[in-house]
Design a protein that fits this description.
By secondary structure, this protein is of the alpha/beta class. The protein has 22 helices and eleven strands.
Length: 503
């Protein structure tokens, strides 16, 4: 390929294949044998989108398996459509909730798909699957000799360790030492090894440094870096985007307008669902949410924050910045205080007094820290555009408060009892008082500025090239070529399962 700074001089000489699907026969044969021995059947993207395509015998097996059990059939529960029960469930419609105006303070309808009902309690198990499985079914990754390394600020390495266990692979989880206690306690039971790096949510570079250390160690391993793995992008485009479309079809009336999707930038994966939705609803917006205390897209990145699940101080390689319309920066004080409002007894009592339906209050534990931030981004954009009752926004609850109970305990120790006065103040300030400051509608030049921030991480630190950055921006089919690979990967999975002989 040949590149130039100017789009009219960009020329693509050969078709692009972003996710490498080269077959390695010997290692593939060993992976097939391992799957036979461990009773492993791998689902396709098509089955994750539409569980009606899952074989009846698999569904029958799932009736005796817990949602978090280390059992290979739970690979089929990597879906937004699991029955919302802890054990024995099969599948239904997309899990979602609608947040009423009495809670949000805006007229616009805010819909949120629910991540709690994935194995591990978080949707990252899907992104990790989509990074590992193409390497496994092609033989690029050998589960009999190699270790799978999962660098993350939390849920992705949990999902990767879990997927590795289900696929009979050894795993190494890497995450900052300052993440929630629940993450480490669970990883001790599932991951082969857990490595703690300095810092907390904002310290992604320290994770990258540890990956380079492992690469140079001489160990036989493969690093699945969600920030640059296009399997992460593809799963959310194909599966999360489709789930959101289904939820919208269920809630929207003939006079409703879909206005946009908000997502924390995080690894750049989840926001890819917006690429799917914009193809269905061309006038809709994609809103990138980040922490005000570390405004990377908004102000080029600095600081630290407490919103676990949204990583920062760099622009992920797999973030399609050219398709991003808005950046909203969310105060982490708003997130942690709203978490108390939604989960403390006095907070819930106050919400009931303000007319929030009991059914909504009962579901508020479904919002983890990043989910709260996503909802606040929807509120900010709804106010910015002065949306009314016929305007619909959608977002995702990547995990739930089940993974943050220790944080609530810490806040209780630091700040004392959560009173009705606290609840009234937080409700007024952080929900109904949410403002339109600290947000930016991106022009073409602003998008390009954000995209060019990739240089400092990916060229200077991680071995990418400047022409590759140009390719992402100027190649007309770059992102759509990635999107088209789902069907090809599904064919490889079907053939792999056929040779395993269990499906």
């Amino acid at each position: 390929m040949r590149y130039n700074n100017l789009s009219d001089n960009y020329h693509q000489e050969t078709p692009m294949t972003i996710i490498d699907l080269t077959i390695h026969k010997d290692r593939r044969a060993r992976a097939i044998q391992r799957a036979k021995e461990r009773n492993i059947i791998i689902p396709t993207y098509a089955q994750m989108k539409d569980p009606s395509k899952i074989p009846a015998k698999v569904k029958e097996e799932l009736k005796n398996i817990g949602l978090w059990d280390i059992h290979p059939r739970n690979l089929f529960r990597i879906s937004w459509k699991n029955q919302p029960i802890a054990s024995g469930g099969t599948f239904g419609g997309v899990n979602y909730i609608e947040l009423p105006s009495s809670l949000t303070g805006v007229k616009a309808r805010i819909i949120a798909v629910v991540g709690k009902w994935f194995p591990t309690g978080a949707h990252k198990v899907g992104a990790a699957f989509s990074c590992l499985v193409p390497r496994l079914v092609t033989g690029q990754f050998d589960p009999t000799t190699q270790k799978a390394v999962w660098p993350s600020t939390g849920n992705y390495c949990r999902g990767g360790a879990y997927d590795s266990a289900l696929l009979a692979c050894e795993s190494i989880a890497i995450l900052p030492e300052g993440m929630s206690k629940e993450r480490f306690e669970w990883l001790e039971k599932v991951a082969g090894e857990t490595i703690k790096t300095p810092g907390s949510e904002s310290n992604v570079k320290e994770i990258f440094d540890k990956c380079w250390e492992l690469r140079n160690s001489g160990q036989d391993l493969m690093i699945f870096d969600q920030f640059q793995e296009f399997g992460n992008y593809l799963w959310h485009y194909e599966v999360t985007g489709h789930a959101m479309e289904e939820a919208l079809k269920q809630v929207m009336g003939p006079n409703d307008r879909f206005r946009g999707m908000a997502s924390a930038t995080g690894s750049g994966g989840t926001i890819a669902s917006g690429d799917y939705l914009k193809q269905i609803f061309p006038e809709s917006k994609i809103i990138a949410s980040e922490a005000l205390q570390c405004p990377t897209l908004l102000e080029n990145g600095f600081g630290a924050h407490r919103i676990e699940g949204i990583g920062d101080k760099h622009v992920p390689w797999v973030h399609n910045v050219k398709n991003t319309d808005f950046v909203t920066a969310i105060d982490d004080n708003a997130v942690v205080n709203i978490a108390r409002l939604f989960n403390e007894e006095n907070g819930r009592a106050y919400l009931a007094e303000k007319g929030v339906p009991e059914a909504t209050i009962a579901n508020l534990e479904l919002l983890g820290f990043s989910g709260i931030a996503n909802v606040l981004s929807c509120i900010k954009v709804a106010k910015y555009y002065e949306m009314d009752e016929n305007d619909v926004m959608i977002t995702m609850l990547t995990d739930s408060m089940e993974l943050y109970r220790s944080r609530l305990h810490e806040m209780h120790q630091e700040s004392g009892e959560y009173s009705e006065n606290n609840a009234a103040a937080d409700f007024a300030r952080y929900l109904h008082g949410q403002s339109t400051d600290n947000m930016l509608e991106l022009t073409y030049l602003e998008r390009r500025r954000v995209h060019n921030l990739k240089y400092y991480t990916w060229v200077e630190q991680q071995g990418k090239t400047y022409p590759e950055i140009q390719e992402q921006w100027y190649a007309p089919n770059y992102w759509t070529d990635v999107q088209k690979q789902a069907d090809e990967i599904d064919e490889l999975i079907v053939e792999f399962n056929k040779e395993v002989g269990l499906s």
